[in-house]
Amino acid sequence: MTLILVFLCILLLIVMVSVFRINAFLAFLAVSILAGIVLGIPLAKVVGSVEKGIGDVLGSLAVIITIGAMLGKLVAESGAAQKIAAVIMNFCGERYIQWGVVVTGFLIGIPLFYGIGFVLMIPLIFSVVYKYKLPPLYIGLPMLAALSVTHGFLPPHPSPSALVIQFNANMGLTLMYGLLIAIPAIVIGGPLFSRTLRNIPSTPLQSFVPVEMPEEELPGTFNSFFTALLPVLLLILATVFSFYTASHPGLKDVIALAGHADVVMLVSLFTATLTLGIFQGRKISGIMSIYADAIKDVALILLIIGGSGALKQVLVDSGVSGQIANLLKDLHMQPLFLGWLITAVIRFAVGSATVAGLTTAGIILPLMIATHTNPNLMVLAVGAGSLMFSHVNDAGFWMFKEYFTLTLKDTFKSWALMESIVGLIGLIGVLLLNQFI
């Protein structure tokens, strides 16, 4: 009976978000309180459980996500992202143009949130399409596949960062494993798959193409690449150095502090403030205005993540998470596959990759602990599942359709299928890594 109640609560969450279009944070909050009541948590402790869940998740993530948003916004506003794209396009030339847009989407997708990256890349995609007279989907889909994969797999994006915290995984290791899985997923779901879509008619709208910054106003090449990728470089370096400091406790503590995601993001932001801001002639007041706008962009994401933490904590405090773990263990299903499958089903129902991943976390966590599953790989398995089955309840589906002026049928054949391809390749990559780690 208890598990039926949990199922009904999750179903209610799905209906509230996908059918009635209720804000995901409010839906999480309402369902968490209701779940606490029906699952037997003492009434006086229900709100406390909800508050603890919100606080635990946001306490670990608020710095990463807000600073990540600030950094991404400055990379975009300063012209660094445009510079990165231009350099890669010039290097690759027309013959290897697809690979150029893939690399561009991947590098820019690491520091930028998906929505910002999508809008930022559209002008580049359209300019390449018109310059070389190539099919829009042949150019656009590979780049957007790269953006999507970085959004689903790699910290410091909101969902994988939140999963790292909830699963007690290692941010640097998750990033390194994620890079190994992301590359084949992008190649197969992007350049290879897009070659089957050349004949789909698409006429990108000129109204979606904003004016680009003049070349002389853009930051330098090294400055643009170095600043945008600094968080990734620092996380990887800290992870590598941590393997060589086991016999030096003092140095190990220094590396642990320097490599902590909060510190890495803060150092990266301070560096960007200088290299892409003050050294480019921007006033500090203008830079702070960019940062303030960035916080507005991610405020709702933070609330949704906090709401997911509330539901997770209710499941833990009620003891239901342990019962779910025991039930799932009896299915004799690979935990990584099960985490992927649950996430994919919720993604199909809700439409939001972030909501799907974070909802799954509270369900799969006890089983992951009980079976001693690698938490870094579980982050990636859930991330891969969160990219599956994009359709009409996903904002990304409609953005792609409208920007490329596609029919619903062609959007399913292109965007929806691409998302499922990268999700499946991600699962295969996780299962293969699990054989060697």
From TrEMBL:
Domain of life from the UniProt record: Bacteria
One CC-aspect GO term: plasma membrane
Spans through the membrane: 27-47, 54-76, 96-125, 137-154, 174-193, 222-244, 256-278, 298-316, 336-365, 377-400, 412-433
Protein name according to UniProt: Gnt-I system high-affinity gluconate transporter
Keyword Transmembrane: yes
Family to which this protein belongs: Belongs to the GntP permease family.
Cited InterPro entries: Glcn_transporter
Gene Ontology terms, MF aspect: gluconate transmembrane transporter activity
Membrane topology: Multi-pass membrane protein
Keyword line: Cell membrane, Membrane, Transmembrane, Transmembrane helix, Transport
Subcellular location: Cell membrane
Pfam short name (any one): GntP_permease
